[in-house]
Specification:
Blueprint (H helix, E strand, L loop, with lengths): L3 H13 L4 H96 L4 H14 L9 H19 L2 E6 L11 E6 L3 E6 L6 E6 L2 E6 L2 H12 L20
Antiparallel strand pairs: 1-2, 2-3, 3-4, 4-5
């Protein structure tokens, strides 16, 4: 019905202008073709519109997912930034503490190096690797842990030596320019008793100032004590000389 009125109108116009029926039919066909093309174009546009709306909806959904991921990433980054700032702060505090330790460490190392020259030969030999490590001043923060561990190790070795009796072969100075091999019995760090391998005159040693001094004294009891310490004879009490310094508290 929608197309009937335009066709009748077109036929009437054609008759009025003297056109034949064939021309009218042809014109009606062309008009129908044009209208069908218009309908098809509208249908195609509608299909394209629906497709575009679907793509737009999908793009909006993807954008929403991206925004959610971005928000989560920002929160994670903020948390990591906070953790990093805390780590940097803690690192700065530790560095400041280490810088404060260096003067104390240098003082302790200086005291150890000063004492080293007065240690008995067996003890000095045990501590030689530590002395080698600490002889140069600490200059780097990275060296502090290793040097502190070395000092603690040296303290343990010294304490162990000081708390026991040690029998060793050493070369304590006798006469000037004459070094002989001795069997030496050390009573901790308090005193020592030395007897040369040839069994000649024994010596009693004690620490003084920058080292140890050995003085000739009772050869027989010292020789006997060394025999007991080495296990060459059965255990027995042997009187030995010892000098003890007492200082009054001020």
């Amino acid at each position: 019905m929608k197309c009937l009125f335009p066709l009748l109108l077109l036929a009437f116009c054609a008759i009025c202008v003297g056109a034949d029926v064939e021309t009218c039919v042809r014109l009606c066909g062309e008009l129908n073709t044009i209208r069908q093309a218009e309908v098809d174009a509208k249908a195609q546009w509608e299909e394209q519109r629906l497709a575009l709306e679907g793509e737009l909806a999908a793009a909006k959904a993807q954008l929403a997912d991206v925004l959610i991921s971005l928000s989560a990433l920002e929160k994670e980054t903020a948390g990591k930034r906070t953790s990093l700032e805390a780590i940097e702060k803690e690192t700065a505090q530790l560095k400041a503490r280490l810088e404060g330790v260096i003067p104390q460490l240098r003082a302790a190392e200086k005291a150890f190096l000063k004492q080293y020259i007065s240690f008995p030969q067996p003890l000095a030999e045990k501590l030689a690797p530590i002395w080698q490590k600490l002889k140069d001043p600490c200059e780097s923060l990275e060296d502090v842990p290793d040097r502190l561990a070395a000092l603690l190790s040296a303290h343990a070795v010294i304490r162990d030596f000081a708390g026991k009796v040690t029998l060793a072969t050493a070369y304590p100075p006798a006469e000037k320019g004459n070094l002989r091999e001795y069997d030496v019995l050390y009573l901790g760090l308090a005193s020592a008793y030395a007897l040369p391998k040839d069994g000649s005159e024994a010596a009693y040693g004690q620490p003084i100032g920058g080292g140890w001094t050995f003085d000739a004294t009772l050869t027989k009891p010292i020789s006997r004590a060394l025999d007991v310490a080495s296990g060459r004879v059965s255990a027995e009490l042997v009187p030995l000389p010892m000098r003890i310094s007492l200082e009054e508290d001020k």
